[in-house]
Amino acid sequence: MVAMRRTKPMQGLAALLTAGMVVGCDNDTTEPAEPLSIVETEALYNGVQELAMDTTLALISVSPNGGVLACPLGGQVATTIEVREEMAADTARLLSSVTLNPEGCVLSSAGNEFTLDGNPDVRTEVNTSIVASTFEFLVEGTITGGLDWILDDRSGTCLIDLTIGVDLGQPPTATVSGTMCDHEVEFDAGGLVPSG
Predict the structure, then answer these.
(1) Cβ(81)–Cβ(47) under 8 Å?
(2) Are 68 and 79 in contact (CB under 8 A)?
(3) Is the pLDDT of residue 30 over 60?
(4) pLDDT (tens digit per residue) in 161-189
(5) Which of the chain's termini has less CB crowding within 10 Å, N or C?
(6) In 10 A of CB 102, how many CB atoms?
(7) What distance in Å separates the CA atoms of residue 94 and residue 183, rounded to the nearest whole number?
(8) H runs (alpha helix) in the chain
(9) CA dist 83 to 66, 75, 80, 131, 136, Å?
């Protein structure tokens, strides 16, 4: 007669946990992706802004408030544009919003080739006000959202929380500042104001 050896429940559980930890360690050979540097983050910002202002992109489809455009080097970007006018007392306001939602969108900026997907998207909102009684002209806005990016053999997510600041002196200037891709940043945003 063969004697059967019984394993205590706790010993069996400990053995399974140990084996699972060993297997998990063996499979976890990849290190976390290196995040974008501040220079690469600026290149990404400029690339997205150039994409938003590019009037030569091929149109794939049209919707009532936007459409889908072909990206310069492959993939596409869905755009949504909203413009609204408001009047309050002696102040006229023009509120504009542009949302970009890339899907496998490939673009080149400052020697870097990015592949982008929306996480969920990038939204630029600009509020322009004119006060009739004082002839005051005010511009304020934000750029918010997030993107999944691939650059060479690296990938990650870039969250965006920027504020647009405009100085309407002569000549007018604009900057965006805040956080992007985990960096504190300040970039030129001259394309958001007339050059005079």
Answers:
(1) no
(2) yes
(3) no
(4) 999 998 877 788 889 999 999 999 999 88
(5) N
(6) 27
(7) 31
(8) 9-27, 38-53
(9) 11, 27, 10, 19, 21
